[in-house]
Fold this sequence. Notes:
By secondary structure, the chain is of the alpha+beta class. 36% of the residues lie in helices and 29% in strands. A 4-stranded antiparallel β-sheet has the order 2-3-1-4, with helices on one face.
Amino acid sequence: MAQALLSIQILPKLKQGDTDVIPYVDRAIGIIKESGVPYRVGPMETTMEGDLDTLLDIVKKMNAEMFELGSPSVLSQIKLSVDGGGNASMARLLQKYPDGK
């Protein structure tokens, strides 16, 4: 499958009694980390790089884990860039901005 960049913002609905979404988000980022794909956490979303099928499987795991943690529903906002030539790369896109400025 093609190389891709996938950015995701995951917004689980909190279960009754929960007031903090951060533990849910931390677990979602942990799933990305455990997958071994290159990723970058930003203030509003996390971007992953890799095979499209692999990235979509990670998204499925993230959503499933939110349900396991007790979230009754999940909203996942995704941006996807697919490159059939295998040139999808965070490093290439960010080379002009090495220090994030």
